[in-house]
Amino acid sequence: MYEPRDAEIKNEPAEIGALLKRIQEGDREAFMTIIRLYQQKVFVMAYSILRDREDALDAVQETFLRLYQKAGLYKPGNSFQGWLLQMAKNISIDSYRKHQIKRREWVTTKPLDEIPIAAEDRAGDSAASDLRSAFARSVEKLAERQKMVFVMRHYNELQFNEISEAMRISVGTAKSLHFKAVQNLRKRLAPALGIEP
């Protein structure tokens, strides 16, 4: 059975519409196709908010369950990825709020370099590994909204209009938050790079 690639899906909203229609009709294979295409991006979004692998995996499962139930609510012509990530963001924030007391007791500070997508090529030299660790720590220290925009832009490879849709902010605000995130990362990474901030 032909499975469309992610780039094709992004360029062909009609194909996403067809998959969602099949999901509404109970087509399990169409549902699994969408999961395969988007589960890593949904995981990165959830992890950027929850910072705990198990909680993030629970949020991913909940997101796709919600997608299965609400497939008919997607409006063709809008960014499907933005719509799905908005759902993942809302579920993750709800989960974070529910576990806030527990979270105060169990402060989990796993850095972003433990996310599978960001941890590729760990066999590289120690200098590259140190730089990756410094980078991940710096991303963790960004203000929440700056970090979310940065993660969506660079880990999920979203366009600013998709980020603005997912976060329900203007494109200008998304760009401004991204600019501030990059500036803050430059300042924090300057010592590791041996340059003046």
Describe the structure.
This protein has 197 residues and is mainly alpha-helical. The chain has two domains: 1-107, Orthogonal Bundle (Rna Polymerase Sigma Factor, Chain: A), CATH 1.10.1740; 111-192, Arc Repressor Mutant, subunit A (Orthogonal Bundle). It is built from ten helices and no strands. It has helices at 6-11, 13-24, 28-50, 53-70, 80-98, 100-105, 126-140, 144-154, 160-167, 171-193. Helix 8 packs across helix 10. The protein is elongated. It starts with 5 loop residues before the first helix and ends with a helix.
How would you concisely characterize the structure shown here?
The protein is mostly helical and 197 residues long.
List strands and helices in order, with pairings:
Layout: H1 6-11, H2 13-24, H3 28-50, H4 53-70, H5 80-98, H6 100-105, H7 126-140, H8 144-154, H9 160-167, H10 171-193
